[in-house]
Amino acid sequence: MSQESSTQLKTTPFYNIHKELGAKLVPFAGWNMPIQYKGVIQEHLCVRNGVGIFDVSHMGEMDIRGKEAKKLLQKLVTNDIEKMSDHSILYTVMCYEGGGVVDDLLVHRFSEDHYFLCVNAGNSDKDFQWVQKIAAPYDVEVLDTSAETAQLAIQGKDAEPLLQRLCDVPLNDLRYYHFKKAKIHKNDCIISRTGYTGEDGFEIYTDSGLAGPLFQKILEEGKSFNIQPIGLAARDTLRLEMGYALYGNDITAKTSPLEAGLGWVVKLQKEDFIGKESLKNQKEAGLKRKLVGIKLLERGVPRPHYPVFADGQPVGELTSGTFSPSLNMGIGLCYVSLEHSQVGSRLSVGIRNQQVPAEIVKPPFVPTGVKK
Amino acid sequence: MEVPKDLRYTMEHEWVRVNGSKGVIGITHFAQDQLGDVVFVEMPAPDSQVTKENTMGVVESVKTVSDLYAPASGKVIAVNTDLETQPELVNSEPYGKGWIIEIELSDPKEMESLLTPEQYIEQCEKEH
Questions:
Q1: pTM of the model as a whole
Q2: Which of A110, A185, B41, B94 could share a disulfide with A114, CB 3.0–4.6 Å?
Q3: By 3-state DSSP, what share of chain B in percent is helix, strand and coil, each rounded to 5?
Q4: Touching A: B residues 37-96, CB under 8 Å
């Protein structure tokens, strides 16, 4: 990476801390982000067994306020906004008219006329433009708050006892997919019981201008829990062990949420939303393919775009793939035609010049630790 | 970064330890650090021939996959079978227990074309 390109990358409020911690920093979605600190496997296991802290300030945030905020969101996303209560969070996708995915996101409801969205870093600008365009006829104000918002994820079974030491509100009654306003250390935060690891834990949103010392404070307080900073590489292996879809890999503008196994966030019975017609037609015509989990039965590491075969014939390609540190084996996600999508079916993955045997399994690949 | 003085190196970050007509081959400290956690090493079969600058295997880390290039030509006389169960030795001891193969050198003179430790350090600094 040349000096020139690195100066164009955005940095989070925790950049200097990452450098001091010896992180490997790489360009990711326009940001200079820590991909790993001590090593992806030990970071991964640290989250599975205890607690880790992630800088996820690259994620995009949007504030939506106004009389018609709920109405706009109901039009924009596929899941049902109507059922949300204050301080609840909803996972959803938003689609194009054709049914392709604009992004997957979290919708946080403060009140009927005030929500905030958390979207993928790489889609942040595109999403903001899309939401603004759709919002034009509605009585709402849409603000891109990404630049002034820092985000940390504290994930693992020890996340609650650790954060409780620094937080001025009780966390034991904060339920999965709900959030509170809280003071953590000296920072006014929104703390939500969400995450992308499959472990219990929290995501914290706070003013980026004041956020710097918070990371340090949590690390210090977390010493007695053997907390470690966790890079984006482990974030990816953690999410993939859960079978969570990643935008750009498993879901894109060209994929259907129904085929991606996200039918549970597509509420075809609700009022009009963008993409409803196309998705309804897809469902009525019958899905052609399905995103499935595979595990390799022999040694090797499956990776995105590797071909997948059934009886020697190509039937699809991997959209995600990695070595699973928890299972010590290769795992991945791939779209295959319905006839080959049965759990337990044998497939093979083309790794260089070999076809390595694999089996279809139902994600998550390892048991989840989230508190539902 | 460790660069032992008694080894010769390639631009692709392999090392060779010459002992008479034999050479032990591995990847460098710099290479293992760039790759991150190594989880799988694909080695050439014993008794097969490897050819200088041609691929002879693959190192897979969690993050990425990297070809192994033969630093010299010769017949494979030993492979490090410990790597089948402990590929992480490539990270922890790249110049020791993390060695990859040993070959009978076809032409010991090929060693002269490999990088000296000083040249290799210079090469790594350029890449960093």
A1: 0.94
A2: A110
A3: 25, 35, 40
A4: 37, 39-40, 58, 60, 62-63, 65, 84, 91
